[in-house]
Amino acid sequence: MTNFSSTQTSSAQTQQSYPAPAGPAAAALLPLLILLFVLVVLVIGASLLYVTIAHPSLATPLTVAVAGVTLVVTIVGVIAAFLAISRR
To answer: Cα Rg for the chain, rounded, in angstroms?
Structure first.
């Protein structure tokens, strides 16, 4: 049996880096991801609102859960903002 990694040539090893995608598809990716994130947040928020209206006894636990999720989303937003600033 031969070792596959030893049979690779140096030109095959240098071709493994892939260039960054370019063009209009790459430019439209970030706005589409933001739109998807907003839609997912709206669907989750609407479902939590429905559960709270249908079962009023769950209002307090859901309020605590939403506050926790808001904290996590805020921290992620701050980290994303710092990363965006550091790339420039």
So the answer is: 23
**DSSP code of residue 23:** S
- pTM strictly above 0.70: no
**What whole-number distance in Å separates Cα of residue 39 and Cα of residue 32?**
11
Q: What single-letter amino acid sits at 19? A: P
Q: Which of 10, 66, 75, 8 is nearest to 41 (CA)?
A: 66
Q: CA-CA distances (angstroms) from residue 46 to 26, 40, 42, 72, 76?
A: 31, 10, 6, 19, 22
Q: What is the pLDDT of residues 12-67, one digit of tens each?
A: 555 667 666 566 777 778 788 888 888 888 888 888 888 888 988 988 888 888 88
Quote the tokens at residue 42: 């709206």
CA 76 → CA 37, 53, 63, distances in Å?
13, 29, 20
